[in-house]
Each structure stands twice: as C-alpha cells, then as structure tokens.
C-alpha cells in the first residue's frame, strides 16, 4: 500500500503544482484580447482621421461654392450695371455730329434751335444712363483720359497742357468709355536750350 500511497501523493503534488502555475490558455487569451484591443483602437483612429478629412473637404467645398456664388452675383450685377455701355458707345458719333453741326452758322434760326433741342434731349437721356463728359481744355495732359493727336509748341500755355479738344472724351458710370482727342502744348525748342 505504501507504493500506492506514494503514487497518489506524487499525483497530488503534481496537481497542486499545476494549480499554482498560471494556465497557458489564460496567457494566450490575454494576448488575443490585447491584439483585438489594438486592432479596434487602430481602426477607431483611422475612422476618426477619415471623418476629419471628410469634414475638412466638405467645409472647403462649401466655401468654394459660396465664393463661386458671390462671384456670379457680382458678375451679374456688373453686367446689369454696364449693359448699356455698347449702346451708348454706338450713339457717341451721333452726339459728335450734333456738336459739329451746332458749331456751324446757319441762316435759319428755327432750324438751329430745333437742332439744339434735339441735341439737348439726346445728351440728357444719355446722362441719365450714366454718360459723363470729360473736361479737357486748359487741364494738364493725362494719358489715362486723353489721346494726344497733336503736340504744338506754345509760348502762352504751360508744358503738357491741353490747348484744344478735337473730340470730347466720356466716362460711363465712372469708367472710361472713350478718351478725349486733344492738342497738347509743349515748350518750344528755343526755350529748352
């Protein structure tokens, strides 16, 4: 019996040793749980980054759309404001012809008065649309609003002063429609030396 008892005691000792040892399946389970947690955390971080990227793209697209809409509204408003530019530009030669005709002396005073009235009505209508004449005579030459047709040496006028206006210049709602054709005074060569 003592042999049987010895084997049983050894079995009990081995069993007790196994109970005190951490089970290997528990260690594997902990490793698996840590790997699963790392995978879920990685996936969460990736989804958060994707969400942030999509939100950024959405906000940028929304801003681009707002800017495009504002540009389109501005262009439309500008087009409406300056739509009459070409029509007014086409009527300027008629205004020029009226101005030349009114400078000519005629025998029929009623005819001249009628021409003057037609010219005034046409010019007032164009002014209401936004036509503004540019003053030139006696002012300093400005290449932005004047077109120098002739340079004349003059003792009386100062250098680069507009002496005469061949054709009147006009602005349309603040923008240059047509520069004035002018004759400009320059210092005579004898005074330069």
What do you see in this structure?
The strands form two sheets. This protein has a three-stranded antiparallel sheet with strand order 1-4-5. The relative contact order is 0.08. The chain is an alpha+beta fold. The chain has helices at 2-20, 24-81, 85-103, 109-129, 189-192; strands spanning 131-134, 146-153, 161-167, 169-172, 175-178, 180-186. The chain is rod-shaped.
Q: Keywords, please?
A:
193 residues, 2 domains, three-stranded mixed sheet, Nucleotide Exchange Factor Grpe, Chain A, domain 2, 6 strands, three-stranded antiparallel sheet, alpha+beta, 5 helices, 18% strand
Silhouette: rod-shaped
Number of strands: 6
CATH superfamily of the largest domain: Head domain of nucleotide exchange factor GrpE
> Which CATH architecture of the largest domain would you pick?
Roll
Helix content: 55-70%
Order of helices and strands: HHHHEEEEEEH
Strand content: 15-25%
Mean pLDDT comes to: 85
Query: What is the end-to-end distance?
Result: 147 Å
Specify the structural class: alpha+beta
Radius of gyration: 47 Å
Topology of helices and strands:
Layout: H1 2-20, H2 24-81, H3 85-103, H4 109-129, E1 131-134, E2 146-153, E3 161-167, E4 169-172, E5 175-178, E6 180-186, H5 189-192
Parallel strand pairs: 2-6
Antiparallel strand pairs: 1-4, 3-6, 4-5
Helix pairs in contact: 3-4
């Amino acid at each position: 019996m003592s042999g049987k008892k010895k084997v049983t005691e050894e079995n009990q000792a081995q069993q007790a040793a196994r109970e005190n040892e951490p089970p290997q399946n528990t260690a594997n389970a902990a490793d698996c749980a840590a790997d699963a947690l790392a995978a879920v955390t990685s996936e969460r971080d990736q989804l958060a980054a994707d969400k942030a990227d999509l939100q950024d793209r959405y906000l940028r697209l929304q801003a681009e759309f707002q800017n495009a809409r504002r540009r389109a509204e501005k262009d439309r408003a500008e087009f409406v404001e300056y739509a009459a530019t070409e029509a007014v530009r086409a009527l300027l030669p008629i205004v020029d012809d009226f101005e030349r005709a009114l400078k000519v002396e005629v025998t029929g005073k009623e005819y001249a008065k009628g021409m003057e009235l037609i010219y005034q009505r046409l010019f007032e209508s164009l002014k209401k649309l936004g036509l503004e004449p540019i003053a030139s005579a006696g002012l300093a030459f400005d290449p932005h609003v004047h077109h120098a047709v002739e340079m004349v040496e003059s003792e009386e006028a100062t250098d680069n002063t507009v002496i005469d206006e061949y054709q009147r210049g006009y602005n349309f709602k603040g923008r240059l429609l047509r520069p004035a054709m002018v004759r400009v005074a320059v210092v005579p060569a004898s005074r330069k030396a």
